[in-house]
Amino acid sequence: MKTITTKQRILNAPLTRILLGLLVCFIAFILAQQITGKLLDFTSLDKNFRNLTKGIISSTAVILTYIYFLKKYEKRAITEFSSKGIVKNILMGTGIGVLLQSLTILVIIASNGFEIVTVNPIASIIIPFTIAFSVAIFEEILIRGIIFRIVEEKLGSYISLLITAIIFGALHVANPNSTLLSGLCVGIEAGFLMGAAYIYARNLWFPIAIHFAWNFMQSGIFGAITSGNEKTASLLTTKITGNQFITGGEFGPEGTIQAIIFCVLASIVLLKLSADKMVKPYWKKDTK
């Protein structure tokens, strides 16, 4: 029998794998952004297209780093970024994200709290589009690709869902105009939904697409505040007013009761469809 050394035990420990994975991917993303940004400063590209280019390159860099590093470290095929079914997962995920955000805004419209002030040029969506896909890729790799996946191996799908939902919500509490309630909203709606999406598809393209579409529709199309951050340019300049439970107030539509309801319903459907894909905690696994 092959003896496992103390060093191997430490390197193979879930916490070590999580910390190293987060560190490597975080460094890759930041370095790619900084280096690309400095190089693009020497070009004559418009600022918006420079940011778009920087977003594409840094997002690609973190995906490739994730694949290369974990393939070597964990000695396995990185199936969560498999090209098999990629078009289906991206289209389906995008459709779900668009639908859920549109339903959330529709409730605000029904309450007479949504007013379109102006319709802007199509170029206005470049910045929110860039932010939406960059954030979706980066956050899904860190939260679902690394933390959720590794925790799930030991503690099972349900506990991993709970832990990553808490982490995801807590990370958003640090945002401007955020409260414990808004962080709880994000944890419940997005934390559970993206985790359920990963379980259903067993790849990251699906939750990335949902995450991207949700954020892009919110900030890039409907002109709403996203996670308490400042408004970006958008296709529609809008004015959202009314009851904070319906509008989300200064945090945006993510902090609304209807967002929680719609996203929780979607999560339940995905989990029901994923009954045969759920992972049991280590103490319930068959040891025979």
From TrEMBL:
Alphabetical keyword list: Hydrolase, Membrane, Metalloprotease, Protease, Transmembrane, Transmembrane helix
Domain CAAX prenyl protease 2/Lysostaphin resistance protein A-like: start-end pairs: 124-217
Sequence intervals crossing the membrane: 12-32, 52-69, 90-110, 122-143, 155-174, 180-201, 208-226, 257-275
Keyword Hydrolase assigned: yes
Protein name per UniProt: CPBP family intramembrane metalloprotease
Any GO molecular function: metallopeptidase activity
Highest taxon in the source lineage: Bacteria
Stretches of the chain forming a coiled coil according to its record: none
Pfam families in UniProt: Rce1-like
Organism: Flavobacterium restrictum
The keyword Hydrolase is assigned to this record: yes
